[in-house]
Amino acid sequence: MKRAECIGMLYPELDDKLVVTIMGACAQELYDLGHKENFFYLQHAMGLASSIGLGLAMHLPKERIVVLDGDGSVLMNLGTLATMARYRPGNLVHIIFDNGSLLSTGGFDSHTTSGITDLAAIAKGAGLERVRSVDSVMDFGEAVIEAFNGDDLSVIVAKVAAVGPNHYGMELHLPENAFRFKRLISERKKR
Fold it and tell me: Terminal CA-to-CA distance of the chain, rounded, Å?
């Protein structure tokens, strides 16, 4: 399955959620579907989308937070999984697209390529209870529906092909995206 297919399936369901993406292909594929003010593309900070998502979830308990992450980024910041397990914000859905590649930084194999490193097993070992590993679009859709309808922290590890967009480039730069995202959060908190 392709990450872009999964993101395309998610896109219509993201209007009422705060979305944080990791850099590179994941961010570009979401952006290409059409930017929304509730999307924060964490450019140039590999490994930190999960940390930012966790912080948002803990400080905005009335909001549903969705993190779109990658295997390389999660491997750079495994400690966040343990921290998520400790605090367990029920409004957080962490989706990890595992393509076995550091696609956005040169296409090198990640540790998951060899079959030795299993991110779902690591998440469970960190103490996360609601972890699903999927490798088909149908299973991905079912896991997302279950996560969005639940009130527990959910982690979905989606095995995807190591392919990305045919271009990179956003008209929205990080400082402007951060400012607009923060303003949106402030406006939503007033409701």
Answer: 39
